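Justification of computing resources. Each target in the renewal requires a structure prediction run like the one illustrated here; the chain below, 227 residues long, is used simply to show the kind of job we budget for.
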Amino acid sequence: MRIIVFAPHPDDEIFGCGGSILKWMDEGHDLHVIYVTDNRVLISWGRSHDVLLEEEAKEYINLDEDEIGKIALEEALQVAKSFGFPKENIHLFKFHDQDAKNRIPDGVKLAKPIIKDTNRIILPSDNNNHADHQATHTIAKRAAEELRLQGVEFYVYALYNILKAPKEKHLKIKIIDYRNQLYELMKGYKTQLCLKDTRIGWQLLKKKRTERFGVFSYEDMNKFENF
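Resulting structure tokens:
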């Protein structure tokens, strides 16, 4: 099975569906990951919202956004490699962090050749209060619509909002066997671990037991809160 994972930012693949990625890889599926943005405003955003850990961020404090974005994408490439993604299955859109909403047509154009022969698309939820996550959802869904991917499964994960879907649309995947591996993989995102909330989430990976998805079909599009 060919599975495409959309990550709005480097590290969203870990927190949104990382254990499932590892499970699907163990099952022998062909997995691809798309990193939509470059995390370039990570340090400035963290400082302006008083969530930056100054000691952990000291080597990045004086770098400009271009430099931060370059480092963040290098981290993403290395983490994806550590996950087990082949080099040719790692896709970087390189959109500026916090600007994906202005690049939706470009994202659709880039996504279509990647998803055209896929069986399952993993994407962040609709009605998302994070602009980059919402834009990523729109990109993935619009690309699927333009290609009329009627036989594809859509696995929606919820970050920054609650998964709202009928019980029959919910799926839990047990990831207990993978949580320590996820914890180690997250160490590769040194820039992300400069933020208080991300560091807390990193520790919680050790206790994570399941990942939840809303599972939808092409015909379900625009009929549910999250899809």
